[in-house]
Amino acid sequence: MEDYKREFIEFMVESNVLKFGDFTLKSGRKSPFFMNAGAYVTGDQLHRLGIYYAKAIHENFGDDFDVVFGPAYKGIPLSVITAMAYQELYGKEVKYCSNRKEAKDHGEGGNLLGWNLQDGDRVVMVEDVTTSGKSIDETHPIITAAADIQIKGLMVSLNRMEVGKGGVKCACDEVSEKYGFPTACIVNMAEVTEYLHNRECQGRVVIDDDMKAAIDAYYEQWGAKE
User: Fold this and answer.
1) Residue 226: is its pLDDT beyond 60?
2) Where are the alpha helices (DSSP H) in 91-200?
């Protein structure tokens, strides 16, 4: 496992973004773990998060893109910090773009925030986690209608590796199959579980044998089959 992945796993625990216990998800599923990207709140946390996204994008998609797009609302800061970090790490200026939930009817108007997409733009999309693909379903028609763009891929911070709406593949794979662009993650839950199992992190073991058994049972029920 790459060093930045190990660092990112510890970073999620340290930032109280990734928690272990007993949680009810929006989908109604009972999960032994929960990720809340809204817990990244400090300048240092946001700076580090952008660095991890930039490294993962560079590793998976290279430099062949011009715009980082983040679906509203959580994707707005993600697109900003990723664009900043990419320039910091790799010296490449990329633009940020997000959609507005409500189209603006004054000033410059429109339903996009930041860069106004142009024909020929190569776009990398960023999300915190994709559980159903709903935000992509909502924003894909918006950005593809705005200009003749090429979507190079979708980067999420954590792939939960559980079945999406189709009940077989994980949501990231469903998105890739539906829209024809690759998806990638900074880390997936298999990597998280392997790294944290019986390992002290931030002064405590967050995945002991009991928690590992609970995670394994969850994936027996909800894990993606492919």
Assistant:
1) no
2) 134-146, 171-179, 189-196
